[in-house]
Structure formats: structure tokens, C-alpha cells
Amino acid sequence: MPQTQAPTRGASTKSFAAVAAALTLAVAGCGGGDEAGATGVGFEDCITEPTTCNSGERADGGDLVWAVDGKWEAWGQADIYGSSLATSIINQPLRPTVFSFDQDGVIHYNDGIYAEAPELLAEAPLTVAYHLKPEATWGDGVAIGIDDFLWHWRATSGDEAQCQGCTPASSYGASVASIEEAEDNTVVVTYVDGYLDSEWYSAGVITHPAHIAEARGHAEWRTDPAVMAASVADFSENPPLDYSAGPFKMTEGVLGEYAKYVPNPEWTGSQQSTLDSLTLKYIGSADAMATELRQGTIDGAAPSSFDPEVLDQLASDENLKYSVAPQSGWSHIDANLKNPFLSDEALRQAVFTAIDADDVNQRAYGAAYPDIETMQNVLFRPGSEYWTDQLADSALGSGDIEAARAILEEAGYTWDDEQLLTPAGEPVTLRYRTGIEGNAFTPIIQDLVITYLAEIGIELQVDPIPNGELSSVLDEGDWDLIQFSWIETPLFAASAADYWGEGNHTGFQDDEVDAIVDELATTLDRDRAAELNNQAAQISLDEAVQLPLAWTPALVMVDKDVVNVRDNWATTMRVFSNVGEWGFLDEDA
């Protein structure tokens, strides 16, 4: 994607982000109540009324066309090939989601599938009940039930005896011991002994309909792991034209190009669409989206990146509305500790001390959002009760060149005609990677980093990441320094494991962090989980593994007659969190 964003942070342990529904449970997550206000035209009420802004009575009917800038490479949601944000977004109108967060950080459970919120039955072993609505179906008259839970368990088990050769999008199934059917349309999931999760209520428990797997020719999925794998691949390779567990049904689609939906007549959730159709169409850049929006060929878009110059175009057109505000992505620069140079903590400390984070943020993001703030905590926003200032006593991100050179001198580094040399006399060169294509922010950050590091004698070799290849670049460790954005939600219990635990993308390993990860898997205390994750983050910062930059500003732009579209920092789905409520203004209401 143009934003150079990785797949959703937490994808290895958590479910996909979800559609909002009715039941609520307050959750203290990344915060949001103290977020700076949005800037733009037509969304001014989002500052004071973030959960209801841009609302209005909807007219019956209308064909709404929405642009997306993520090119999805799979249709399925159970394997790694469909774990990208782009695939999640293209499926959002029909996915069997469990919950979502609103802009106030409040969790809402999907009232189209569940009769009530998940219920904790026991802690040892962890046992959770899911109360299904009897009328909840897959859009074809077949009720959602235990077979769908069992299929997803096998798909995400990571067990060759359950799903042969599968590469699951989450590790949910690896922690499940049994799934059983109980009375009153209830499914009970029991986890393995010793496994606990303070965010147990957020697990993704279903992705695809088991009966459709059978109808597509994979009837033996329960007993044959090869057939099970084939059914996973089938869902990934073919569009979901034969099922839906959301407010819309897909009627046609071409991979990476478009998907067309109509309302799902069997959907019983509170989000009921008034549209005749919804089309999600790939358009690769914010500039192109703005042009088509002004021409009336699309009705809205929420690009992952944009050139601030596009805001002038939007502001000059009285038929459009737009908003810019920090959303769910946070930008950072990471060090690859497997690199021979960056394996030295002193060099990492010097590199991140030389970079001026405030300057980077103002120059890169300030033109789009003047109130941009530099992150001081990598997990929680300032509005969260769990926020602590993790950089108050650190020089990281200070841009203090003298301090950076002093760190290097003390560690035995020298300079030859301003070229930095290791204590062994080897010239220090590093390969810097980020996404440039279609992104107005990262080229600015790249140029600034080149300038800062030249001041301490380090020459950077620039190697842009092609669109869509960030995941493979991270997995292969094909970088020395890298800048991109993680996509966050108020869920945080798995953060330490994902960012700094075994197999993390930086190669960082720390015994204390490993112990934190182990403890996180044995606690239901969310306050304790927050404390532990903050400890792990502090250790990573103290050892200069990464430099946080900012919660990056995001843009939403719509035709003035489009209502109930609003951005949402608290979910990876952003505007799509309430897609079932979108519509055109009823001017006669």
C-alpha cells in the first residue's frame, strides 16, 4: 500500500478488526478522548461528536462508489495471503466480525451474529461462551453454527494434522483445546491449560462458512488435513459470491480491481443499509481519487496516504467534504539488529539520537496536520490511562548531533574525512528502505534521515520498497533501517509478543522481554498487561531498537450528500467500521 503499512499489528495473535454493533463495554485502550481535533470542511462536528458526526437521514436507494488504495491479493481471511489490510477492507461489508471499537474507544459487539457479548465461563482453563442469534445466517438461509467455529480452529491451528501446509493469518487455533455446542444456540471455546489472555473477549472465532467449503468440493475438511488446506486456499482464491455474514452481499468482483455489493436481506444487525449497491474500486493514489471525486465518478475515499496539496483541491470545491486527523497508523524507524553494524547498541543509540523526530514530523506531516505531535509512548495515546512518557529521559529523536558523535567516540568509533569508521576501522554504510511510490510523507522523512546521518558520517544507500512488498521485506530482513507504519487498535495485550518477542522483524532478543511475553500469556488482568507491555516497550527504547515518530494523519473525503461516513482511529477499518450505515442524504427529511 502507498502508506507503506504492514499487515495489522497483532495479526499473529489477534482477530481481524470488526464491524460495530450494539452491545457496549468500555475498554481503556490506546485512548482517544484527548485526541487533537480534525481539520477540514464539513466534518467540524467530529471534534466534539466523533461517534455521530456527518450524520443525516438517508434517502432510500442510491449506488455508492467508494475508492480504496490497497490492492488486495486474496479474497480469504484465514491464511497469511489474506491477512493484509487491503483484503480485510474489501471483505468488510460481509465479514463475520465479533466486535469493533468506536471513536471513543468503546467496544461494540456484532449484534447481527451474537445475542450478547462473549461470556467468560472459567479462567482455568480459559473458557468462553459465544451466544449466537438463532436468526444469524450466512446470507443463504444456513445458520452460523459450531461447524464454522471448528473450521476456523483447524484453519488457524498451525497443526499439520489439522491443516496440511497451511499458513494461518492468526495463531488463534494453536491455543484452543476444544470447541463444543451448548444449549440455547451457544458455542463454548476452551483453551489449552495455562493459556490466558487479558483480551479474551476479542478473539476472532470464525472467518468462513464450513457448509460453503463443503459445497465447493471440500466435504472431508473435518477428517482430511489436505482437504482442509484446499478449502482454505479455495476461500483465498475465489470471491465470496456465495455467502455473507454482514450487511452486504458481494455480487461480483475482480481481484485487486473492484468488488460490488448489494444489501444482504438476511442480515439482522442494527446496521441496515439504505443503498441499492456499494462498489469498492481500486484507485492507486489520493490525487486520482480526488480527481474522480470532483468529477462525480466516485462518492468518497479514505486513502492511506496523500499529498497535502490535494487538500487545496478539496477545499476549493463546495460540493465536497473532507477531514484530516491522526488515525490508527503510527510511523516509526526500526533498526535491523541482524545487520553487523546495527548489532552494536552504541551505533543504534547514535543513529536515533541524530534523528530529530520533531523536525521530521513537522516537515513531513505538518503541512497536512499542523497540530501533529511526536509520540512519547509506542503503545498508548496521551488520552489513555496507561500512557507514560517513555522518552522523557532519553536523547532518542532529539537531533543532538554532538551527543550522537559523543556516543560513537566513547564506543571507539573514529572518522576518516567525515566517514564514520567502526572501532575495527570499517566504514559504516547502511541500507535505508521505505515506500516512496504514491506517498508524499515518506520521501520527506527519507531525505531528512539522510541529512541527519550524514552529520555523523553515515552514508545511506536508499532502496525504496515496491508497493505491496513490505511484508516480504520485513519477513526476509531485507533492510538495515526501515520506516513504515504499524496499524493499531485499542487492543494491546499481544503487543510485546508481536513487536519484540521471539521471531520479531528486528531480530531483537531480550530475556526480560521474553519473560514479559510469557507472563502476558498467563494473566487476565488488563491493568497488569498494560504495565507489562509498557515495560517491554521501555526496554526496546532503552536499547534503541526503534524510534517512534507520530500517529500519522489520515484523510477522508466524500461528496457533500454522503452521510454517516466518519473516520475512526480505533479500528484498522477506519471509515468502514460502520459501512452498513452509509447512505445519501434525504433532502426531503
Helix coverage percent of residues?
10-25%
Strand content: 15-25%
- DSSP summary: helix tally: 14
Number of strands: 22
Largest sheet: 11 strands, mixed
- Using the CA coordinates, give the radius of gyration: 24 Å
Terminal CA distance reads: 40 Å
User: Average pLDDT, to the nearest integer?
Assistant: 91
Write down the oligomeric state: single chain
Broad shape: globular
User: What structural class is derived from the secondary structure elements?
Assistant: alpha+beta
Low-confidence blocks of residues: 1-35
Characterization of the model:
With 589 residues, the protein is of the alpha+beta class. 23% of the residues lie in helices and 21% in strands. The chain is built from 14 helices and 22 strands. The chain has helices spanning 85-91, 146-155, 210-215, 225-237, 286-295, 310-315, 345-354, 357-364, 401-410, 442-454, 470-476, 495-500, 511-520, 526-542, and strands at 23-26, 39-41, 63-68, 99-101, 106-109, 119-123, 126-131, 176-182, 186-191, 248-254, 258-263, 277-282, 300-301, 320-335, 414-416, 419-421, 429-433, 459-462, 481-487, 546-559, 562-563, 583-584. The strands form 5 sheets. Strands 2, 3, 10, 11, 12, 13, 14, 17, 18, 19 and 20 form an 11-stranded mixed sheet that branches. A 4-stranded antiparallel sheet has the order 6-7-9-8, with helices on one face. It has a 3-stranded antiparallel sheet with strand order 1-5-4, with no helix packed on it. Helix 7 (345-354) packs antiparallel against helix 9, helix 8 (357-364) runs antiparallel to helix 10 (442-454) and helix 13 runs antiparallel to helix 14. The radius of gyration is 24 Å and the shape is globular. This is ABC transporter family substrate-binding protein. Residues 125-504 form the Solute-binding protein family domain. It holds the Pfam family SBP_bac_5.
